[in-house]
Amino acid sequence: CLALIKNISFAVIFLFTVNTLMAQPIQKRSSKSPNIIFIYTDDLGYGDLSCYGATKISTPHIDELAAKGIRFTNAHTTSATCTPSRYALMTGQYPWRKNGTGVLPGDAALIIPTDKISLPKIFKTAGYRTAIVGKWHLGLGNEVNKDWNSAIKPGPNEVGFDYSFIFPATADRVPTVFLENHHVVAADTTDPIRVDYKNPVGNDPTGKEHPELLKMASSPGQGHNQTIVNGIGRIGYMQGGHQARWTDEEMPLTFLSKAKGFIEDNQQQPFFLYYALTEPHVPRMPSTMFKGKSGLGYRGDAILQLDWTVGEIIKQLKYLDLYNNTIIIFSSDNGPVLDDGYVDGAVTQLNGHTPAGRLRGGKYSILEAGTRVPFIISWPQTIKPAISPALVSQIDFIASFARLTGQKIPAGQATDSEDHLNAFLGKTQQGRSVLVEHAGTLAIVSGDWKYIHPSNGIAYYKLTDTETGNSPEPQLYNLKQDIRERENLATKYPEKVKELQQLLEAIRNK
Ligand code: NG6
Ligand code: CA
């Protein structure tokens, strides 16, 4: 009997010990390298978040990041559209140095070199696990004419991501499919995919011929009226892959579950997650739980959805005890636009909301709202909450994170990227002394001054209601006194114009 009791108590103690051991986090992470999550939104404007002054919409989860981290007021993407901004992010090179870096169609070939340094490679060589989840828009494969039904490479995996779950271009462009690593998700060999941007392919109805089949009308004159997928006319023609075509309302939830899966799988080691959300880019088709919630139309609903998504990521990081040692960067790839191709209520239900805040211009514009974007960095364990006026750019991530992870950038590469780690981490409020902005033309910001180079592009895009900032005359603004870029001081300060022209010229010729 005694022996039995002894055995039972041994078993109890054994089980108790195993249980307690299992309940403990295997390693305490605080001394380890921080994880990095870069949450990159699509077309979110400087005034779209309540922490940046929006009053018609409330974004509590992003506001929490801002309250505990650094909220930058003069942070930029390189360009006023997506592909060039993302090109710069990946390469550390200004996109206007290279032809073919404008907004890409969905069948474009990869434009990022695979034999040079890239943002994910910085982390990968430092021993991080790297992933992209979300929008890619930098081309895939070596050819435009590619076979979507077999392995597609090179792509994000060859650029430095260990894992990729993406869509190729934009949500309004075919092919409307996800790719996991090299393959289209849910591809079906009996229904092969073909994509064409010039000639119609396949038998699916187009928005142009069958507007009665659309659940959201495309805006007249903008051309989102080719192959219809999920009741939405797209740019480009697509044949086959019916099983693989996404449902727009599910897309953000799909990306979220992939992002959370990657975080969970890699909780024991440092990771870099590039989480590229599609909101609030067109077509705005939020999940049912967000439809109608903002009162501002689907654009507002999409912003609420992206805020919720950020909250879900924060929640998961806290649950896994990773939050304190994770650097979360939140930003946008270009400024805001209301009507970008669909009649979705963004214009009619605006209700006084100001997507660009106090800034002038928006997406496609060389004026400040084109590239000055929301930009928040949180790292609870290290960063002290602050608002920073430092002039910084997403192009600086490569050089800055190279320093954070002790990497050296090969000579002659990522040459436009500057190390501003100290500004990113709030150790200084001093950032760049000079930054080039890019839309239809170039502008240069230096100190309080901004010079916009003359261009013959049109001054106003009627379809998207965009002030482009283009002018055949040189423009000079004092951003400190005139953040709205109302008063052109070029004739008053010709010396300043000359100085900035020369500076811009020197950077162009670098
Ligand atoms: C434009 C599209 C717009 C959007 C944009 C890319 C037209 C008329 N408009 O050409 O709808 O897709 O490209 O947006 O085709 S971005 O955020 O990816 O740069
Ligand atoms: Ca964009």
Structural class: alpha/beta
What does the largest sheet look like? Answer: 10 strands, mixed
Note the overall shape: globular
Beta-strand portion reads 15-25%
Count the beta strands: 22
Order of neighbouring strands in the sheet with most strands = 7-6-5-4-12-1-13-14-2-15
Small molecules bound: 2-acetamido-2-deoxy-6-O-sulfo-beta-D-galactopyranose, calcium ion
How far is the N terminus from the C terminus?
88 Å
Range of helix content: 10-25%
Compact description:
It is built from 11 helices and 22 strands. With 510 residues, it is an alpha/beta fold.
Structural summary, described in words:
Residues 34-406 form the Sulfatase N-terminal domain. Keywords: Hydrolase. With 510 residues, the protein is an alpha/beta fold. It is built from eleven helices and 22 strands. Helix 6 runs parallel beside helix 7 (297-319). The N and C termini lie far apart (88 Å). The relative contact order is 0.16. 2-acetamido-2-deoxy-6-O-sulfo-beta-D-galactopyranose is lined by residues 42-43, 81-82, 103, 137, 170, 172, 222-223, 235, 281-282, 334, 340-341. Residues 42-43, 82, 281, 333-334 line the site of calcium ion.
Tell me the layout of helices and strands:
Layout: H1 2-23, E1 35-41, H2 60-68, E2 70-72, E3 75-76, H3 82-91, H4 119-125, E4 129-135, H5 156-159, E5 163-167, E6 179-180, E7 183-184, E8 194-196, E9 228-229, E10 232-233, E11 237-239, H6 251-265, E12 271-276, H7 297-319, E13 326-332, H8 368-371, E14 375-378, E15 386-388, E16 392-393, H9 397-404, H10 421-424, E17 434-438, E18 442-446, E19 449-452, E20 460-461, E21 466-467, E22 475-478, H11 494-508
Parallel strand pairs: 1-12, 1-13, 2-15, 3-16, 4-5, 4-12
Antiparallel strand pairs: 2-14, 5-6, 6-7, 8-11, 9-10, 13-14, 17-18, 18-19, 19-22, 20-21
